[in-house]
Amino acid sequence: MKTAEDGIFSFEIICAAKNFLHIPQPLYVQRLNDDSATRLKRTPEQDLIFRAKTLLNSADCLEKFMSGIKIFNESPNLRLRVLMFFLEVQLGEMQNSLLNLTPAAVYKVFLREFSKSKALNPALLSILLVMLNIRRNELSK
Prior knowledge:
By secondary structure, the chain is mainly alpha-helical. It has helices at 5-16, 44-67, 70-74, 76-99, 103-116, 122-140. The longest helix is centred in the middle third of the chain and has 24 residues, at 44-67. The termini are far apart.
């Protein structure tokens, strides 16, 4: 699976479930693999490129999935909260790279990657993500 698909897959399963069963023992075991895509050593720019692609994929996957579910169509606030949660998770994953690059360098990486992916309005999307990160950093001080 691509990065972030496990979280989206889990979200989709929860949304589709008709019943829930509580099992007190863990059923999921995470096996850490130093060779996995998420554990590879990267420069801050390489990591940001990797995470930018994930960000685009996860936002589109979630939006498409939620558009087919009645509650998300009837409650735009709920839909937005889900999207914002996933964005916050992705930004958290990028945090080290974002802190090690200047806002201009972050903008340049996002613009290049979003342009390559044929995202609509890549410049605007890049500016908004840089601004969001600046505000997040200001609030965390």
